[in-house]
Amino acid sequence: MRESENDILKRVRKIEIKTRGLSNEIFAGKYHTAFRGRGMSFAEVREYRAGDDVRDIDWNVTARSRKPHIKVYEEERELTMMLIVDVSASGLFGSTDRLKRSLITEIAAVLAFSAAQNNDKVGCILFSDRVEKFIPPKKGRSHILAIIRELIEFEPVSNGTSLAEPIRFLSNVNKKHCTAFILSDFIDSSSDIAALDDALKIAGSRHDLVGIRIVDERERELPDVGIVELRDAESGRKVWVDTSSRRVREHYADNWKSRDEVITQTLRHNHVDTAVVSTGEDYVAELIKLFKQR
């Protein structure tokens, strides 16, 4: 049943109150510290001084002048944050009091308000196994509220997931450097890891990519509750499973572990910093840990 206009506005307001408070009190400063170094523009070259970072040495100027010189950078006044948000059907699952998609929406709002506190632009790419919608980067509270509203009420055309599609789209639509947060359960129904690896490699050469993986404990392991019917939200396939069988439960857990390792290695190989957030846990601590490790 589709929500009424009033219900949607209430949900947007509720999310704004909670996430804007978190952004103001916790994340705005940490976001600025973690990502400001990625938005530096060249200002000038000057002679090397004791204590300067040797990684900033301009070797061409140094060779010509025969004296060590370094490149001096200044922080760009405006950065751009892109939220790459998974709206596929697998997000409509949750064994706790919230769905994965609800958690993604809340985290996206926290990140967006944190960027706004630093006077950055925020844009959004909604995706399934295709790019469902692109919201160009802009500033301002009304723009962020419009993004949150889209996250709440958007109904995708497709149920599937292809992580490579929105990342390729990012490379094509954003020519200037940006920080891009990929908010997804990273359950890729296309199973095309090679395509994802290529897309991350190309996008990562220009942009700062960060992964926020949303998981649910019941995706990792099955409880012993007898014979149950399981349904794949993206394909619609149904299967009866005897969860009382230890062998079945172990096979299920092993399958999850294998897929998890492939995704983890792919992200690590492409230098994508990643936080893993469970629907049953507090995401604040995980985001703070992510920001601190950068």
Q: Could you spell the SSE succession in H and E letters?
A: HEHEEHEEHHEHEHEEHEH
Number of helices: 9
- What percent strand? 15-25%
For the termini, the CA-CA separation is: 42 Å
Instruction: Give the low-confidence spans.
Output: none
Q: Helical proportion?
A: 40-55%
* Rounded Rg: 22 Å
Question: From the structure provided, what is the oligomeric state, counting identical versus distinct chains?
Answer: single chain
How much is the average pLDDT? Answer: 88
The 3D shape can be described as globular
Estimated structural class:
alpha/beta
Give the beta-strand count: 10
Neighbour order of strands in the largest sheet: 5-4-3-6-7-10
Summarize the main sheet: 6 strands, mixed
Secondary structure elements and their pairing?
Layout: H1 5-35, E1 40-47, H2 59-65, E2 69-75, E3 80-86, H3 100-117, E4 121-127, E5 131-138, H4 141-153, H5 164-173, E6 179-184, H6 193-204, E7 208-215, H7 217-220, E8 227-231, E9 238-242, H8 246-269, E10 273-278, H9 283-292
Parallel strand pairs: 3-4, 3-6, 6-7, 7-10
Antiparallel strand pairs: 1-2, 4-5, 8-9
